[in-house]
Each structure stands twice: as C-alpha cells, then as structure tokens.
C-alpha cells in the first residue's frame, strides 16, 4: 500500500491517546473512526478532542478553524465491525495491559480487511510479545505517539516488512511528526525510557518524604524553564496508566523502584484521582496550581 492510498484510520480506544491521535489524523485529512468498549469513553471523546485542539492552537501547532473542520472527519462506532470495515491503518490505543492488547488484536485481525496495517501505541510493551495474537505479523509494528505532535517512535516486530515500516514513516511525516525507527526492540522506545525515569525519580523523592510535590515540580520547572514538573506530567499521563507502564517496564531491565512507586500511586488511583482525565490527580483541573501566576515564586 502506498501512503496516497491511506484514507481511513480506525482508532481503538477513545481515551487520552486515542483522542489525541484521532485529532492529529483528522487534522491531516484522514477519515477517522473511533471504537471503545466503553460508551462513556465514546461520549467523552468530543471533550478530549476539544481539549487537545485548544492546547495545540495555544502552542501554535494549528488553528482553531482547522480543528473545527477536522472534527467532522471523526466519527465513533460502538460496533467493532463498523470500526474495522475499510480501515487502512488500525491504531490500537487501549489500556496498557498485554492481555487487553491481545484481545483487541485477535478481535480485529478477524474483522479488518487483509490490507490493514496494525499498530500499537503502547508505551512499554514489546512488539514481540504483542504480535503473537496476530496472523498479519508482517503488517504490524509499534507506532508510539507523544502528548505533543513531535516525534513518533516506530518499533518493528519480528516479521514486520520493510514496506510496512516505510509506509508508517510516510504516515508519520504526513502528520508533521518525525519518525524515529528503533534499531532494535526496546521497552519504552528511546524517549519513554528516559521520561519514565524522570517521573519515577520525582515520585521517589516525594514517597521518601524528601520534598513536597509542589517543590519537586517547582524545582524542575524553574531550572529547566518548563511549564510542568514530574507530577504535572504524571497528571497528564494518567496515574493508572503510569502505574501500568511501570508494571510493563518492571522485569525488562528498567532500574525504577516500581513496587514503591505503585504503593505511592495506589491511594490516588483508588480515590479516582487519575489526573487531567478525571479533573483531579496531584493537582486539580482545568486550572492546576502549577499553571497559576506566582507558583514558581512560592515556598
Ligand atoms: N497517557 C499518555 O500520556 C500516553 C502517551 C503515549 C502512549 N500511551 C499509551 O497509549 C495507550 C492508551 O493510553 P491512554 O492514556 O489513552 O489510556 P486511557 O485509560 O485514557 O484510555 C484507554 C481506553 O481504552 C479503552 N479500552 C479498554 N479495553 C478495550 C477494548 N477491549 N476495546 C476497546 N477499547 C478498550 C478504555 O475504555 C479506555 O477508554 C496505552 O498503551 C498507553 O501506554 C499513553
């Protein structure tokens, strides 16, 4: 398949990243169909698309008019067969759990046309452990999008064809994102391996009682001139997703203190304080303290 033949993208999972990816695809002219097992998630899609749209307009990445226009290219489907029909690329963005990914791949491998290329937006799982549930191993890779339109990580499976990788590079470029192809399989790609270590270091300092959450963020924000610190970033990732990512990296060589980290996140997760997506995590949204004037000057 040539990139000019790619018209329809099926996005499975309407959460944080499914929304972000859908918007990017629609902004660049693709027809997008979004499926989720949760009707609540499908109902909340519009809000999340507007949220990402607003942020990208503020960051100068697009214009409000383009965001509004792109929304008409996105539709939802609670029926998986409807989502699968005529998909050129299927982007899996469901929960970061291997068994859930396998279930989705098995289900859609049967429903999608032969030509459909499958990709996973996983943050920490390996292509070799995900591909086992797929027949189309030559048309499968990890294609990992980030919060902002910047870089897309590409990781082959054991049988991914060169044609598939080339198409995914072109697909990434068609959305003004830089494709970075891994030289070999690695959990967390390049960026996430470093990013997760940063999040984990922030939690480690708070869990050990060395500093307040706000001071840990303040310290990072001030020194690096960044709009958020590790806890602001965790709120965006989602505390449940971050905990699952840690579990995914555990035992794959990542030096993080994941057991202690999960213990620290657990009470927040149990209360439903999952971050931006639930309106409360370490901070409250839509106006978190770290984005308020004077935050960097307080003690
Ligand atoms: N949150 C981030 O910053 C971030 C960044 C890059 C990559 N990722 C990765 O993207 C993926 C999704 O993360 P997220 O933050 O969007 O999670 P999320 O919890 O916001 O959304 C996951 C969605 O998957 C749906 N889902 C679960 N099982 C399903 C199934 N069987 N069929 C259809 N839908 C199903 C859930 O209902 C939910 O709406 C994960 O693999 C995560 O590691 C996350």
Automatic annotation (TrEMBL):
| Sequence ranges assigned to domain 3-hydroxyacyl-CoA dehydrogenase NAD binding in this UniProt record | 9-183
Highest taxon above the source species: Bacteria
Q: Where is the signal peptide?
A: none
Q: What GO MF annotations does this protein's record show?
A: NAD+ binding; oxidoreductase activity, acting on the CH-OH group of donors, NAD or NADP as acceptor
InterPro entries attached here?
3-OHacyl-CoA_DH (IPR022694), 3-OHacyl-CoA_DH_NAD-bd (IPR006176), 3HC_DH_C (IPR006108), 6-PGluconate_DH-like_C_sf (IPR008927), 6PGD_dom2 (IPR013328), NAD(P)-bd_dom_sf (IPR036291)
Concerning SUPFAM superfamilies, the annotation shows: 6-phosphogluconate dehydrogenase C-terminal domain-like, NAD(P)-binding Rossmann-fold domains
Domain 3-hydroxyacyl-CoA dehydrogenase C-terminal: residue ranges = 188-285
Alphabetized, the UniProt keywords read: Oxidoreductase
Sites annotated Important for catalytic activity: 144
Could you give a single Gene Ontology term from the biological process aspect?
A: fatty acid metabolic process
Q: Which PANTHER family match?
A: 3-HYDROXYACYL-COA DEHYDROGENASE FAMILY PROTEIN, 3-HYDROXYBUTYRYL-COA DEHYDROGENASE
Name this protein carries in UniProt: 3-hydroxyacyl-CoA dehydrogenase
């Amino acid at each position: 398949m040539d990139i000019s033949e790619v018209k329809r993208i099926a996005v499975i999972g309407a959460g944080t990243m499914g929304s972000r990816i859908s918007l990017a695809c629609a902004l660049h002219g693709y027809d997008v169909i979004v499926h989720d097992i949760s009707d609540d998630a499908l109902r909340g899609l519009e809000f999340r698309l507007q949220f990402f749209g607003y942020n990208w307009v503020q960051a100068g990445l697009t214009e409000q008019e383009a965001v509004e226009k792109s929304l008409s290219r996105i539709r939802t489907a609670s029926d998986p067969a409807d989502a699968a029909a005529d998909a050129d690329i299927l982007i899996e963005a469901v929960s970061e759990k291997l068994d859930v990914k396998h279930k989705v791949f098995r289900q859609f491998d049967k429903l999608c046309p032969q030509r459909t290329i499958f990709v996973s937006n996983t943050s920490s799982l390996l292509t070799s452990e995900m591909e086992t549930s797929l027949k189309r191993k030559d048309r499968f890779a990890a294609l990992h999008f980030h919060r902002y339109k910047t870089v897309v990580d590409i990781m082959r499976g054991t049988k991914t064809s060169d044609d598939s990788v080339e198409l995914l590079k072109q697909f990434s470029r068609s959305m003004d994102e830089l494709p970075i192809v891994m030289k070999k399989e690695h959990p967390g790609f390049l960026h996430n391996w470093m990013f997760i270590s940063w999040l984990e270091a922030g939690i480690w300092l708070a869990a050990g009682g060395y500093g307040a959450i706000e001071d840990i963020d303040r310290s990072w924000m001030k020194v690096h001139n960044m709009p958020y610190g590790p806890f602001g970033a965790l709120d965006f990732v989602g505390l449940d997703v971050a905990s699952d990512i840690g579990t995914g990296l555990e035992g794959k060589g990542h030096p993080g203190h994941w057991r202690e980290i999960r213990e620290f996140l657990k009470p927040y997760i149990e209360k439903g304080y999952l971050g931006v997506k639930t309106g409360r995590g370490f901070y409250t949204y839509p106006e978190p303290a770290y984005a308020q004037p004077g935050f960097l000057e307080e003690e």
